[in-house]
Each structure stands twice: as C-alpha cells, then as structure tokens.
Amino acid sequence: MDRHLYSDESKVDGFRFAGAVVDGEDLHRVRREVLDWRVGTARRWHTSKEKPEARDRALRRLLRLAGSVDIVIVEHAKTHPEYVAREACVDALARWASDHGVTHWTLEQDAPVEYRDRQTIAMLMHTGEIHRMRYRHEAGPAEPLLWIADFAAWLWTKGGTFREALSPLVVHHEVVAEPEGRRLHHAA
Fold first, then answer.
1. d(CA 151, CA 104)
2. Closest by CA position to 16, among listed 131, 160, 132, 173
3. Gap between the Cα atoms of 62 and 148, Å rounded
4. Is 149 helix (H, G, I), strand (E, B) or coil?
5. 134: phi then psi, degrees, rounded to nearest 5
6. Of 17, 152, 157, 24, which is closest to residue 94 (Cα–Cα)?
7. pLDDT tens, position by position, 92-133
C-alpha cells in the first residue's frame, strides 16, 4: 500500500516540520474534504491568512479525518542557523517516513532550499539509511493536502489549546539536533 507524506514548515520560535500522512486509498476522499476548507472563491487555504471562524471550521473537519490522516511533528530549537535546523528536520522526517512505509513525499515549495532538501534525501537513500521513495516539491495552491501540513504546523506552533486540539492526530513528535555521526551539508 502506498503511503503519502505532505509536509510544510513553520519558522516561528524555532523551526519545525509538520507532516500529514495519508494512505493512497484515502487520497482522493481526503483531498476533496480539504478543498472544502476554502472560503468563497479562494484558490487555496493558508492558515495564517484565514479568519478564526474559518480555522475553527477547518479544525473540526480535520479532526473528522482521524484515522485517515496522521500528523508527524519534527522540530529543532532555535539554536542553529535556519538552514541547519531545516536540514536536521528533513533528515529526521525522512528517517521517520522510511520507517513507517512512506512511498511518496511532497514538500511545500520553497525555492531557495529545495536543492539542499533534495541533496539530504538523496544522500540518505544513497547510503541506505532510508528506503527509496519518490519525493518532490509542490506549490501550496497546487496540492490541497499540503494545506493540512500548513495547518498542523500553525496549530503546533501556537501551542496551548491549539496544540491540544491537534493532539488526537499526532502520531509522532520529535525534537532533533544535528544528526550524530555525520555533518550536515553546510552552505559554502
């Protein structure tokens, strides 16, 4: 069975990736549900731009997807430059995905860091540290399942009751540092 991971990051108070995991057989149903989060004629859902009522409605709908959507949170404290924190999170999320049968990974498009993301994932596959999987970067408006990851990252970052509301879907939370035993690819 195919498992798909959709991830987006938050750079507020540290660095974190939220990933939404959906089984291949549930993709179309979950995507249709998420498309209904949009308000009016909006092309996409973007949590930070939505009104509180729209976020509340989306949260209720997301919670109904429990069992079809799992959330993974990987975060790094604000102790390193952003590119180091991101690379550590990509590394950790790739390892989790490999250990949990993910076959396809879609990361939210962020042009300045895409090369380094691809380099990190490819290196892990090349060395056999993770299994082979398809991975790509996609623009948020083009892939509604990235909206779940965006929302999860926002809820987790907000903390308190927002984080508690998300907790029924969270299957893994990890705080990472630079991976031991190897150096990350630092910018030249």
1. 20
2. 173
3. 8
4. helix
5. -80, 140
6. 17
7. 999 999 999 999 999 999 888 899 999 999 999 999 999 999
